[in-house]
Design brief:
7% strand, 372 residues, alpha+beta, disordered C terminus
Length: 372
């Protein structure tokens, strides 16, 4: 952990770093490939909608049933003529879902299940779910998603600028598409819990993005008054300075969600946890990825199209060419020490290994003017 802390400090101070922005085309290509795969999975396999969205019946058996899940699923499918989903609950009872049946059909299925499972039919609880309820839930979810998106774009446009709002919006669409596509590919059931998890991850997805944007906003203040850094280079420094923080927060969030998904849903067989835990797990991972590899590089791309940023880039490159011709450094690194010609009110450059700016060292070694 101490090594990770040291690495985080060195990244924050600009002593080391990785050029995420320079390699943005690679990240864009990876994201496009993943997104296309998700869309194809969604188009080919479709979403496995839960009974809440399709309508049907839910049968709950008594506790401590000795029948296996597979055997109960076979009984339910034979009795109903429809696909059935069977889950074993913590008290040993079985939850059997059969979609697309009405009240009359459910009574016959209940009697047949009682005979096959060798229990009294009065001990099997049957609940009917209408498709209209699921439709209302889906509509409310879409409304909530739309309102959330509008508010996020407005807030980011006011707090930062419209380019950052647009980049954050693209990152959110990226995260939602991947999460929904994974559901289609894996075949997990989509329930109201899935919708709740999907709406929850949007906030997590924005968290890391806003952290980087805030750092970028501070470091690019009065950026045109200096000639050491381009906008893309400062954007890259912003990513590196918050990188370890993003990794730490993401890992800490993924650990309990992973426990729900892999241990609760996989090992312990609590299948009801899968619907919400998968959306949270995929969404958290996709959100961390998009904040680093999508949102900030996209902002840099949009900003570099501005005339002021184009002019700044020309001045920076011209100064570096002049320095190279005079025998100086050919290209300024992404991180390093301040230059003396950088104004005091400009974006604070990340300092060198000793954490001291060039202004602190000015005047050292000069004659103070005092008589000895």
């Amino acid at each position: 952990m101490s090594k990770l802390g040291t690495l985080g400090a060195r990244l924050h101070h600009g002593e080391v770093g990785y050029d995420f922005v320079k390699n943005r085309k690679i990240w864009y290509g990876i994201s496009i490939l993943i997104t296309i795969t998700a869309i194809l999975g969604l188009a080919v396999r479709g979403l496995h909608m839960g009974i809440e969205f399709q309508g049907g019946a839910v049968f709950t058996t008594p506790k401590n049933m000795s029948v296996s899940v597979a055997q109960a699923e076979e009984y339910a499918e034979d009795a109903s003529g429809h696909d059935a989903i069977v889950q074993k609950l913590g008290d040993g009872s079985l939850r059997i879902q059969v979609a697309g049946i009405d009240t009359k059909t459910s009574d016959g299925i209940k009697d047949q299940l009682a005979e096959d499972l060798k229990v009294d039919d009065e001990r099997i609880n049957a609940e009917l779910v209408g498709p209209s309820w699921g439709e209302q839930i889906a509509n409310k979810a879409w409304q909530g998603l739309g309102i959330f998106m509008i508010l996020v774009v407005i807030y980011l446009a006011i707090a930062f600028e419209w380019r950052m709002a647009l980049a954050a919006f693209v990152a959110l669409i990226h995260d939602i598409t991947i999460t929904v596509g994974i559901y289609a590919l894996v075949g997990f059931e989509v329930t109201p819990g899935t919708v709740i998890g999907l709406l929850t991850i949007l906030g997590y997805s924005l968290y890391d993005t806003v952290v980087v944007f805030d750092s970028l906003k501070e470091q690019t203040r009065d950026i045109t008054k200096q000639t050491r850094w381009t906008y893309s280079e400062i954007a890259n420094r912003s990513i590196n300075s918050t990188l370890v923080r993003s990794i730490n927060t993401t890992v800490v969030a993924l650990l309990p969600v992973g426990g729900l998904l892999f241990i609760g849903g996989g090992v312990l067989g609590a299948g009801m946890l899968n619907d919400i835990s998968l959306s949270l797990f995929v969404g958290l991972a996709a959100g961390a990825y998009s904040s680093i590899f999508i949102a900030t590089p996209l902002v840099a791309d949009l900003k570099e199209r501005e005339p002021a940023m184009k002019s700044l880039k020309k001045r920076v490159l011209a100064k570096r060419a002049q320095g190279a011709a005079e025998g100086g450094t050919q290209e300024a690194p992404v991180t390093g020490e301040d230059h003396d010609d950088e104004p005091e009110d400009a974006a604070p450059a990340v300092v060198g290994p000793r954490g001291q700016s060039a202004a602190r060292t000015r005047g050292r070694g000069r004659n103070s003017g005092k008589r000895r």
